[in-house]
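Dear Dr. K.,

Following up on our conversation at the group meeting, I've run the structure prediction for Aminoglycoside phosphotransferase family protein from Glycomyces terrestris. I'm pasting the input sequence below exactly as I used it, so you can double-check it against your construct before we proceed with anything downstream. Let me know if the numbering doesn't match what you have in your notebook.
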Amino acid sequence: MYEVAIRPRLTRADVEALVRAHLGADLEFTAHEEFKDGFFNAAHALEIADGRHVVVKVAPDKDLKFLRYEVDLMATEIECFERGLAAGVPMPKLWAADPDAGVMIIDRLAGVPLPKVRAEIPADQLLALRKEIGAAAAKYATVTGEHFGYPRRSGRTMAATWSESFLAMTGDVLDDIEENGSPLPRPAAEFRALFAAERDLLDEVTRPALVHFDLWDGNIFVKRDGARWALEAFIDGERAFYGDPIAELVSLQMVPEEEFPAAVDGFLGRPLTAAEERRLALYRTYIMLILAAECKVRGFDPQQEANQMKWATDTLERDFTALRG
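The predicted structure tokens came back this morning:
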């Protein structure tokens, strides 16, 4: 297990040295800010004297203990950025990427995370924004991978079929949960059986599409466009994998119930089919297992851990019951 100390501790001088190493040895800097709300990568903003504003992300030391899916997360995020940007997904410009060193440098966005301004956005504009977000997120799915699974170098979850890959992914997080002693509403073996019973449904997916899998509102930046709010960009990409495009809707669904259909309309241009609804419940179960596993290792304060565990276990029980019913 690990705690919040997994996040690298870097001084301003450390961060400036990284930028000089990647963008130019003679660069000068006029401002610095550390983002302290993350629990995994270090993130620092620097203002360069030439007018550029960049964010530097640095991965934790490779020798630390991670959840199984977290190995090579920086390499995964870099691939998500490179391929997403090439497909026209709105993301910050990628100035430099070093997956071996666990460093990436991106533009600092001008807008703000959606939760900070949500209360200012009229209801009709918010629905239009949800549709815009769904349509932009769908561009990830235009990218095709060589295999299903996480693009990690070990190939641990890569497979030729989506069922084989997804069972490996869910098996990994259930192994983490059993090792860490995270409480679940049902035994891990019942979740393994639940996923295994859905092989045929999963194998209706035959193309490994890129899935960001972390498009909750905190990773969505918006900015004013005249009298309205518009999507600026998506950030992060650490949880990305190649799989079913419908999995992208898991995080887009983490909004008030009445807003989700607009996101689906933007993403698909039609309602979900019954099979897609069922697969979505499987992917929602997977992310909730990840959130449960995190609680034992992230170093959350007690209230945050309690809130996340309740959300995860309540959702797991609801979807398990519905899927088995």
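Two things stood out to me. Residues 85 and 233 are 10 Å apart (CA to CA). The first strand starts at residue 29 and ends at 35.

Best regards,
J.T.
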